[in-house]
């Protein structure tokens, strides 16, 4: 699984470029931090949004992920798994937030796609692909998005987390299992069960 | 043994299906995050520098010297606006000195800064630091120096205003602030 199309929502970084960025960030070069936010911010946001179901929560947690990155980067040793490291921080924060708030995420209606008050112009949703354009297609996609979000809201937290980690990060199931502190078999089973449930809900309508 | 590289065919199929249905991804502006990260990086840099005792000692000396100047003014109970301006120049001097201590230059700061501008800076320090922090041309070191400056000045101002003998300073600051507002309004 390739995850989100990085070309659409994030600036791509080559492995060499990433190693250099991390090194510069460890020297507290602010431009390097900006570049890391550009590279991973939207995907992390997508993950946190799908995990918590609330734009405000996702935005707060996104900022916290990057603040923790700054605090912890000095001790980070790059071995090619930076993305897993970041998503692990995000997953832990997301889980803590859900536990603290004590609710299953309620995916918010599609009307929030325009972004909250004060958002910049790029708030909202990744644009619909031009080859699927047209007003009817746009409406259809908005409707499908709403259905998908409702369906995601019906999954168990752990199932949704596995599926979203797989979708938004490039983590292997072994890494996801480690992040969630579960056996590999459990992570695989949650993904299998969660996806089947998601599909059943979506296609059963 | 479980092998994730040989998953159940249904899982592979359903993951491919998910790729199709997750056609739209939520997005959010990154400017606020970048701003917060820069401030955090500045504080991290400052913390690392402050661990070095000589830097810490230098900074303490600078703060002490400036504080001594201000306290000297207070002891003399001078209420002359001229003295206020001397006081603000000292504070601006602290900014320059802090920059020297930290081995960086803060653009736009220096003893040549106008006293009126300096008072305005002190009166609205938080907003001012915020405004500079969003200026992406500033370096992490500059942010760090600004943060230390903001902390120092806020403490100093607070101490001064709490002192009943120095309560007049608040009124003077308000007056100069109003003067500045007038000038800015005239400038248009």
Task: Describe the fold and architecture.
The complex is a heterodimer of chains A (205) and B (188). Chain A is mainly α and 205 residues long. Chain A contains nine helices and one strand, in the order H-H-H-H-H-E-H-H-H-H. Chain A starts with 5 loop residues before the first helix and ends with a helix. Chain B is an all-alpha fold. Chain B contains eight helices and one strand; from the N terminus they run αβααααααα. In chain B, helix 2 packs across helix 7 (140-162) and helix 4 (81-101) crosses helix 5 (115-123). Chains A and B meet through helix 3, helix 4, strand 1, helix 6 and helix 7 of A and helix 1, strand 1 and helix 2 of B. Strand 1 (124-125) of chain A pairs antiparallel with strand 1 of chain B.
Overview features:
heterodimer; A: 205 residues; mainly alpha; 1% strand; B: 188 residues; 8 helices
Could you outline the blueprint of secondary structure elements for this entry?
The complex is a heterodimer of chains A (205) and B (188).
Chain A: H1 6-9, H2 15-26, H3 30-52, H4 55-72, H5 82-101, E1 124-125, H6 135-153, H7 157-168, H8 173-179, H9 184-204
Helix pairs in contact in A: 2-3, 3-4, 3-5, 3-7, 4-5, 7-9, 8-9
Chain B: H1 9-21, E1 26-27, H2 31-50, H3 53-75, H4 81-101, H5 115-123, H6 125-133, H7 140-162, H8 168-187
Helix pairs in contact in B: 2-7, 3-4, 4-5, 4-7, 5-8, 6-7
């Amino acid at each position: 699984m390739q995850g989100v199309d990085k070309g659409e929502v994030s600036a791509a970084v080559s492995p060499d470029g990433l190693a250099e960025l991390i090194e510069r960030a460890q020297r507290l070069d602010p431009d390097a931090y900006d570049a890391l936010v550009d590279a991973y911010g939207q995907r992390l946001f997508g993950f946190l949004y799908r995990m918590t179901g609330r734009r405000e929560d996702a935005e707060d947690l996104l900022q916290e992920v990057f603040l923790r990155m700054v605090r912890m980067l000095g001790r980070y040793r790059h071995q090619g798994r930076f993305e897993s490291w970041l998503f692990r921080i995000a997953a832990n924060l997301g889980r803590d937030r859900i536990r603290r708030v004590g609710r299953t995420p309620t995916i918010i209606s599609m009307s929030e796609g325009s972004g909250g008050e004060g958002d910049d112009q790029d708030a909202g949703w990744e644009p619909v692909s031009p080859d699927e354009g047209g007003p009817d297609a746009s409406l259809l996609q908005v409707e499908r998005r709403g259905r998908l979000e409702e369906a995601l809201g019906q999954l168990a937290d752990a199932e949704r987390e596995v599926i979203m980690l797989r979708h938004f990060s490039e983590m292997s199931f072994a890494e996801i299992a480690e992040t969630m502190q579960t056996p590999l078999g459990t992570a695989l089973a949650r993904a299998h069960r969660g996806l089947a449930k998601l599909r059943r809900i979506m296609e059963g309508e | 043994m479980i092998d994730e590289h040989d998953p159940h065919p249904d899982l592979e199929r359903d993951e491919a299906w998910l790729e199709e249905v997750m056609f739209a991804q939520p997005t959010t502006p990154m400017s606020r995050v970048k701003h917060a990260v820069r401030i955090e990086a500045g504080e991290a840099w400052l913390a690392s520098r402050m661990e070095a005792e000589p830097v810490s000692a230098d900074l303490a000396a600078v703060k002490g010297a400036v504080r001594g100047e201000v306290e000297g003014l207070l002891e003399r109970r001078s209420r002359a606006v001229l003295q206020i301006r001397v006081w603000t120049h000292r504070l601006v001097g602290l900014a320059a000195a802090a920059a020297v201590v930290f081995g960086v230059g803060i653009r736009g700061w220096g003893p040549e800064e106008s006293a009126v501008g300096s008072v305005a800076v002190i009166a609205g320090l938080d907003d001012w630091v915020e405004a500079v922090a969003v200026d992406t041309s500033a370096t992490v070191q500059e942010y760090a120096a600004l943060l230390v400056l903001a902390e120092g000045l806020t403490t100093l101002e607070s101490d001064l205003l709490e002192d009943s003998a120095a309560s007049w300073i608040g009124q003077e600051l308000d007056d100069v602030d109003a003067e500045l507002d007038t000038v800015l309004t005239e400038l248009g």
